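lol so apparently i was supposed to do this last week
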Amino acid sequence: MINLYGKTMSQLAELMVQEGQKTYRAKQLFTWIYEKKAKSFDEMSDISKSFRDVLKEKYCLDKPSIYVKQVASDRTIKLLVEFKDKSKVETVLMRYNYGNVACVSSQVGCNMGCSFCASGLLKKKRDLLPEEMVGEVLVLNDLLEEEGQKVTHVVVMGTGEPFDNYDNVIDFVRIINDQKALAIGARHITVSTCGIPSKIIRYGKEGLQINLAISLHAPNNELRTKLMKINKAHPLEELIPAIKEYIDLAGRRVTYEYILIKGVNDSLEHARELIELIKPTFAYVNLIPCNPVVEKGYDRPDSATIHAFMDYCIKHGVNTTIRKEFGTDIDAACGQLRAKHNEE
Ligand code: SAH
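anyway here it is w/ S-adenosyl-L-homocysteine bound
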């Protein structure tokens, strides 16, 4: 069965041609499934009965089911969604003042092995398919519908490394960005990577206006390799030029994510090194006070240290912010998505 939620408009148009249909069927189907939220092919009254029968036989409209739902005191929603094969991933909805931000997982587990990240404690079981990532957003939209709201922004910052599942993530982005589907603006979509240079360059060539975030977390190779396994394979002298190339190709700035870990990467000397390193890439910095990972003994610096780091960056001309925290009382914060239910 082909899940329609996993097809981009052009892929669906191609499928329709293979079915002996006109390409406009793709648009018609998008309208039915995303705008009119049809739950079955029988509802699609302007499609002939005989073609509806074909659709019923070969295609489906499956969404993941909600296995666990938690709502935090700040109204953050954390879901553990379950797919057909019983794999489960976490999806989080954050209520910013500018919109409803869905944090989507891209893999079941993760193989990147970053030392500070609890989300990656479970090794990768498999990649998520486009329809499964679209499903994460649809399930949140169904919940928000009761409030007359919907998901307005998407960050691919849940469990998994999106660029280790490149093709599926790009299809996912194209689907949610499509005007006829979820119509989430490109500038409202962010893909976050731990830094795979070849994929960063490829992403720059896609012609998408999607935001790119780089999980940097350390200003030199020695420290970065300690924190992030990926830096051994692709050190900074590979990563930074790839980001420069991306910026030239896409004409977009990037955001560096930098977790501040107490006594590890939080000194003003680190800030100085960071500014030097990213100078050629003219970017934003988003500081993330480390969420404690007891397994690793990491903790966050005190507020004065965090602000001193930020002030140093700003003083040296880099637009720097501190990430707002959501859902701390339900373990929904960065790096805290634990796939414990997958281990059952
Ligand atoms: N693999 C991608 C997508 C996951 S994003 C990436 O690395 O970018 C997950 C975000 O949460 C990253 O910015 C990551 O660095 C951050 N994160 C992970 N563990 C954290 C922790 N303990 N405290 C704060 N942020 C954390």
